[in-house]
Amino acid sequence: MKMIELGDSGEKIPVLGLGTWKLGADPEGNIEALRLGIRLGMRLVDTAEMYANEEIVGRAIEGQEIFLCTKVSPDHFRYDDVIKACDRSLRKLGRKQIDLYQLHWPNTSVPISETMRAMERLVDDGKIRYIGVSNFSIDEAIEAQEAMKRYKIVSNQVEYNILSRSIEDGLADFCKYEKMTAIAYSPLARGVLFDQKHRALARLLEEIGRAHGKSPGQVALNWILSRGNVVAIPKAASAEHVRENAGAADFELSAKELGEIGDFLKTHPQEKPLSSRLTPAVKKSSTIWAKLMRYREGLRNRRG
Fold first, then answer.
1. Which of 134, 205, 265, 282 is deepest in the core (most CB within 10 A)?
2. Do 174 and 141 meet the contact criterion of CB atoms below 8 Å apart?
3. 182 strand-pairing partners
4. Does residue 135 contact residue 165 with C-beta atoms inside 8 Å?
5. pLDDT single digits (tens) 58-105
6. Is 51 among the catalytic positions?
7. Which domain covers residue 67, as residue numbers?
8. What is the number of domains present in the chain?
9. Which of these is catalytic: 51, 101, 130, 160?
10. What is the CATH number of the domain that holds 188?
């Protein structure tokens, strides 16, 4: 598995990791899939306290040498709450230290200086190694960094895929300039890529994939990695999916193929990322935000 540097930390992480959002309905199958991904080199495992699956992830990674990432929910951004949330995550994950601890979403109802002070204490106490953010805009990332006195933000986890490319409207360049690694969640667009309305794009990816012996999904993942400064964390839904995802990093798209994809995307409609569908009012209230996310997750689970 190819490796890149996390920010400017000197830490090397795989370009493909394992996402765990919505994992938990089939614990034993999920654990099997995660362990397979680790064996295949996808040794970055990302979860979050809001996913309510840290204990399952903890079982999967027991005894494994991995780079572990989790996130604190925005309703726990008060100083004492950040510390307590980290302690809970450590217990559930069965670890003494989290490699990358991330702020899951912005929460403007809590001063960012209070939150980042707690994050720096966690580094000082040895409970976490690196600090990251998730779904932060340029302004929000700058404010968070300026609030810290001793450490740098090494990453920003955002939705990024061939259909949702809002990160390219300045945020990707900002991350490169500030040496923050972009961690791409939903890198396969939650399956929307294969909807009928995107059939023309899927056909193009199929055609390019044939030249490499790869699937359209593998080409879509490889396209993200080709952008540079990006780590992708496709969901570890099943052993079959994990095996396919792992095969997305062992080939390179040619300049001609990248050009064909780029030309097509210039006129192809984008999907709106999840973050753009959260209203400013919701983002200002951690309680409303948490309820909304639980409601959305409940709907997804009922729909299967």
1. 205
2. yes
3. 156, 230
4. no
5. 999 999 999 999 999 999 999 999 999 999 999 999 999 999 999 999
6. yes
7. 3-303
8. 1
9. 51
10. 3.20.20.100
